[in-house]
Design brief:
Helices cover 38% and strands 13% of the residues. By secondary structure, it is of the alpha/beta class. Strands 9-8-7-10-11-14-13-12 form an eight-stranded mixed β-sheet, covered by helices on one side. The protein has a seven-stranded parallel β-sheet with strand order 3-2-1-4-5-6-15, with helices on both faces. The protein is globular and about 65 Å long.
Length: 475
């Protein structure tokens, strides 16, 4: 086993973390109005290779990062074990993920493992400005602020790719945008990469398309479908953050409300379990008969959207598909219905179809809009159809620790792999590494694994130290 994978259990106590709203939401200053691109900022050491809302927020961001570190034990343990060996020495990473306190812990972990990093945001609304400032103050080239325009978004990614004297050799992506831009506009750089790590449904789909067309010229790791991502981030994170998002934005009471959740994958399951637990009446739409059968066995009624659209109080998309909710559906919603997306990007709800002259948009609060029809009917749209939990609340740091540790290990695996181990294709994280990520987080719960005897291991046909399940096992 490689040195950075050796189990060296060193358990420390971890205090709990109660998520709070980003300081970004309450901060304002006249001198910081306008685009950050129009201002020259420097950190305390005179560095200016960054673009954030305001470097003055750095102290607040550092405190948020310190809170997140307490709830990210696996990532901190990975950092502690490997900071001497520096398995990412020489890695030059271009990253495009959510810029939050949890991402900052990952950034500093990758740096401690030897990597150089340039970072941008994969979502124009999810950046915590104070965290971006703290990263800039610490000397990291970070280009992100909350409320970027579409042009700003692509400018920030390009600034990470094209820095003078910086030749990227790894990409860490969430949504595939950095990969897409590099492939389309900087193909020479793309072709020299050692690897790509992608953690979203959409980004992985793009990679498989490139591979199918024989256009993928570098190995890529599909982190999204690793067990430690799908079964934890998608399920447990969404189970908690959907309630947080809806409460913060609308103050809604869930008991007795009729809710439609589109999609019963891991994200949909998490949403349904949480809402049902607070007394909501939950319906599910599905295209997959297996997921539909699971929903039925879990006690949810599987319907077509047209059957319930007139009666529901809350509509949540969680499919990873496009235009699941169309203008026709939105026209039929009842007055006051709350509409939001827990899937990916802003494709699930056809928001463009309601940006028309016959409808009025009325801002209620941050990330909350009333869409008003000519007859006076209004619906409540959250985050303009983008990911509501990452735009309107925070996500549990502990779950992000699992995902971030998976990302870090995938980067190390691709970067350290000998020539020929990974070809120009898309790979799942090896099962042994999935188990290692889980093991790093067990000490938090004072959990003690049972070791099989030699005879038991032989009977099962497994190694005593794992992996313990075949690749086709679904958990």
């Amino acid at each position: 086993m490689q040195s950075w994978l050796r189990p060296q259990l060193s358990y420390g106590s971890v205090s709990s973390y109660d998520s709070t709203a980003s300081y970004t939401d309450s901060y304002s200053s006249d001198e910081d109005e306008g685009s950050p691109r129009d201002r020259q900022q420097k950190n305390s050491k005179g560095g200016s290779d960054f673009c954030v809302k305001s470097i003055k927020l750095a102290d607040f961001g550092r405190r948020e990062i310190e809170i997140a570190e307490q709830e990210m034990p696996g990532l901190m343990l990975l950092r502690k074990r490997n900071c001497t060996d520096k398995p990412l020495e020489g890695a030059k990473i271009v990253a495009c993920t959510h810029v939050t306190a949890q991402a900052a812990v990952l950034i500093e972990t990758l740096a401690a493992l030897g990597a150089q990093i340039r970072w941008s945001a994969c979502n124009i609304y999810s950046t915590q400005n104070e965290v971006a400032a703290a990263m800039a103050e610490a000397g990291f080239p970070i280009f992100a602020w909350k409320g970027e325009s579409e042009e700003d978004f692509w400018w920030c990614i390009e600034k990470c790719i094209t820095a003078p004297g910086y030749q990227p050799n790894m990409v860490l992506d969430d949504g595939g945008d950095a990969t897409h831009l590099m492939y389309k506009k900087f193909n020479g750089t793309f072709n020299t990469l050692k690897g790509i790590v992608e953690e979203s449904v959409t980004g992985v789909h793009r990679l498989y398309q490139l591979s199918k067309q024989s256009k993928l010229t570098v190995p890529a790791m599909n982190v999204n479908d690793s067990v430690t991502k799908t079964k934890f981030d998608n399920l447990y994170c969404c189970r908690e953050s959907i309630l947080d998002s809806l409460k913060r934005t609308t103050d809604v009471m869930f008991g007795g409300k009729q809710v439609l959740v589109c999609g019963y994958g891991e994200v949909g399951k998490g949403c349904c379990f949480a809402l049902k637990g607070l007394g909501a009446i939950v319906y599910v739409t599905e295209i997959d008969p297996i997921c539909a059968l699971q929903a039925c066995m879990d006690g949810f009624r599987v319907v077509k959207i047209e059957e319930v659209v007139k009666h529901i109080d809350i509509l949540i998309t969680a499919t990873g598909n496009k235009h699941v909710v169309t203008r026709e559906h939105l026209d039929r919603l009842k007055n006051g219905c709350i509409v939001c997306n827990m899937g990916h990007s802003n494709t699930e709800i056809d928001v463009a179809s309601i940006r028309t002259s016959d409808l009025t948009w009325e801002k209620v609060r941050t990330q909350v809009d009333h869409i008003i029809w000519p007859d006076g009917k209004r619906i409540v749209l959250l985050a303009e159809g983008r990911l509501v939990n990452l735009s309107c609340s925070s996500v549990p740091s502990f779950v992000v620790s699992i995902t971030a540790t998976t990302q870090a290990i995938a980067l190390i695996e691709l970067y350290k792999a000998p020539p020929g181990r990974y070809k120009h294709d898309v790979y799942l994280l090896p099962k042994k590494m999935d188990e290692y990520v889980a093991m790093l987080h067990l000490p938090t719960f004072d959990a003690h694994l049972t070791e099989p005897s030699d005879d038991q291991a032989k009977y099962l046909g497994v190694n005593k130290t794992g992996p313990f399940k075949p690749n086709y096992y679904r958990y």
